[in-house]
Amino acid sequence: MTKISFVIPCFNNEENIDDLFTSLIENEKQFSDVDFEYVMVDDASKDKTFDALKKWQIKYIDKVKLKQLTKNIGSHKAVFKGLNSVTGDCVIVMAADLQDPPELSYKMFQEWQSGNKLVLAIKNNPLPAFSKLFHNIMRTLFVKQAPKGAFDYVLFDRSLLLELQMLSIINCNIFYRLVDLHPEFSILSYTKEKRQKGKSGWTSSKKIFFFLENIAAYSLNKSGIKK
Predict the structure, then answer these.
(1) Number of CB atoms found within 10 A of residue 210's CB
(2) For residues 210 and 21, what is the distance between their CA atoms, to the nearest angstrom?
């Protein structure tokens, strides 16, 4: 039986966890003959996110895996930590705040069944100025085959997971790394929902650090220096 592994980084998402799992479990009804695995990575949350996750792991012990990090490292690096635990035939990476609709995963899965090893969900929403600058630089200088827009909700085949884990650079944007690794991909579009509960931990200082870290990592890699 086919298995889908969801990898979901969480940081101060205590208020969203119950709604998230309610949506994820409801989403399973769209599928038939599919097993589900949820790898939840608590990125050193300061609230009771881990306690909320633990409650759902107890309820669904066969499908929920938890990883608790002792230091906040950011969502992309947290995803890489979670990838070490997946056992599915394909992997879906999504946010924990329900701005990425879980129900879209069924269409992504159908694309995978049709033979697409990488499926990108592109946001229809206008990009904030800082995000627009980041994506323009990444596409112009480093990953020219990347689509326009923001894409941080993806599905990829397990074969890409094995290649992704062997890359020399893992401490940057996982989504651009996937496109860099596999330039043939399928695209779906969606509208990112407004966050209903809690406050984003994606602060301005984190955005700037992430921006600089990615530019440095790709620049070094482009010049042949491995990080």
Answers:
(1) 18
(2) 28
Domain ranges of the chain: 2-222
Rounded distance between C-alpha atoms, residue 89 and residue 122, angstroms: 23
**Residue 200, token pair as written in the block:** 């984003």
The predicted model scores a pTM of: 0.91
- CATH match of 2-222 with 3.90.550.10: yes
Dihedral pair phi/psi, residue 77, rounded to 5°: -65, -35
184-197 CB burial, b ≥16 within 10 A, e <16: ebbebebebeeeee
Q: What is the pLDDT of residue 214?
A: 82
Q: Do 193 and 23 form a contact (C-beta atoms < 8 A)?
A: no
Q: What is the pLDDT of residues 24-34, one digit of tens each?
A: 999 999 999 99
Stretch (H or E) spanning 91: strand 90-93
What is d(CA 47, CA 129) in angstroms, rounded to the nearest whole number? 30
Structure letter (DSSP) for residue 84: T
111 C-beta neighbours (distance < 10 Å), count: 19
User: What per-residue string of b and e applies to 62-78 under the rule 16 or more CB within 10 Å gives b?
Assistant: ebbbbbebeebbbbbbb
DSSP string, 26-69: HHGGG-SSEEEEEEEEE-S-SSSHHHHHHHHHHHTTTTEEEEE-
Q: Where are the alpha helices (DSSP H) in 40-185?
A: 49-59, 75-83, 104-113, 129-137, 158-164, 174-181
